[in-house]
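Changelog-adjacent note: as of this version, every example in the card shows the full chain rather than a window. The one below runs 146 residues end to end.
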Amino acid sequence: MRNIAVISDTHGTVPDRLLTHLSEADEIWHLGDVTRPDILIPIQNLGRPLIVVNGNCDPRGTWPETRQLEREGCTFHLQHRPPPIAIPSNDAILFGHLHRPIDETMDGIRILNPGAITGPRHGSASSFAWLRFPEPGKWTWKVTAL
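Full-length structure tokens:
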């Protein structure tokens, strides 16, 4: 089973307890607001593929604004800010920015937010999510508190 750790809004901080979780990932997706690219070094040192999109607090042009990724026959759109509308031909849209976990459906497409590593809001805890693929064409999403 492939395990992808999805994180967002680290805002210059990568807690050791997050690195412990990330060490179990096959791949890591960061949904923006890294703020300082050097804080990704401990994550990169884990030796897992790391995909990042630019957030509103990141230096402009450091990473792509969006990414379209296919894994195990499923398509995911990554961006930092919440989508104003569902983007067709995706199984899910993953975003950060709001600092709280979200799992909703818009026009038949899952809209997912893993929450924030730094500065959770609306009573949520610091969190990230696991995107898992138990079999090709099937995936699950689980938010995990730090």
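Structural remarks: DSSP finds two helices and ten strands in the chain.
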